[in-house]
């Protein structure tokens, strides 16, 4: 397993790099203003459809949550893009016993109220407007281990150009009241699917 690595200089450089490329490549990044508290960590579940996903969620954390950013990333990607580990990335390998280490590490991070942990439950890239959002089972093990230490937030992001030269990214957020709201992975996936469907419907109704 690859763990995050602290280097203040590298982190400072890529922090500003990420904010810059998001600002330069998007007309606007819009998101819901949800309540953020200091007493609990954030577990952010997001759809996965592009190269931009992690950067957009990093930008969102900077603008809204203000937590220490962490993201679960496929191990091959972390090893191939070395600076990811300096920006809070830790690896997961679904075909290895190390997957338990990744799950335990994610749950441990959620014990610290200063942390945000981003996970893409789909596990791989899908179309931005896919109908069904697939959930990998590992996310439920993290939630069970972390218990009540965190705030669960659903994120559904959609990108459109419409009348602008650069795209607009819209991040639809939903904060969940109580981590015990769901009894199993099926209930969690169903709740996220409802949020995703509602968000997609809102996106298709945009008229400029």
Q: Would you give an account of this structure?
A:
The model has no long low-confidence stretch (mean pLDDT 92). The protein has helices at residues 8-25, 53-65, 75-80, 99-109, 138-146, 185-204, and strands at 28-31, 41-46, 68-74, 89-92, 115-119, 150-160, 168-175. It has a 7-stranded mixed β-sheet, with helices on both faces. It contains 6 helices and 7 strands, in the order αββαβαβαβαββα. The chain has 208 residues and is an alpha/beta fold. It has one domain: Glycerol-3-phosphate (1)-acyltransferase (3-Layer(aba) Sandwich). The longest helix has 20 residues, at 185-204. Residues 42-155 form the Phospholipid/glycerol acyltransferase domain. GO terms for molecular function: 1-acylglycerol-3-phosphate O-acyltransferase activity. It comes from Mucilaginibacter lappiensis.
């Amino acid at each position: 397993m690859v763990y995050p690595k602290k280097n203040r200089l590298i982190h400072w450089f890529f922090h500003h790099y990420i904010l810059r490329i998001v600002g330069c490549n998007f007309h606007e990044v819009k998101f819901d203003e949800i309540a953020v508290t200091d007493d609990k960590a954030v577990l952010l579940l997001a759809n996965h459809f592009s190269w931009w996903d992690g950067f957009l969620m990093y930008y969102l954390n900077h603008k809204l949550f203000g937590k220490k950013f962490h993201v679960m990333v496929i191990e091959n990607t972390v090893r191939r893009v070395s600076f990811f580990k300096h920006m809070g990335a830790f690896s997961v390998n679904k075909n290895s016993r190390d997957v338990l280490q990744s799950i335990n590490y994610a749950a441990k991070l959620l014990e610290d109220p200063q942390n945000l942990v981003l996970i893409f439950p789909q596990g791989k890239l899908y179309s931005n407007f896919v109908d069904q959002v697939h959930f990998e089972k590992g996310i439920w093990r993290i939630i069970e281990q972390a218990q009540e230490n965190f705030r669960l937030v659903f994120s559904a992001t959609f990108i459109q150009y419409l009348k602008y030269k650069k795209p607009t990214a819209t991040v639809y957020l939903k904060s969940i009241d109580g981590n015990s709201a769901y009894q199993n992975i099926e209930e969690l996936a169903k709740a996220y699917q409802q949020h995703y469907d509602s968000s997609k419907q809102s996106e298709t109704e945009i008229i400029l």
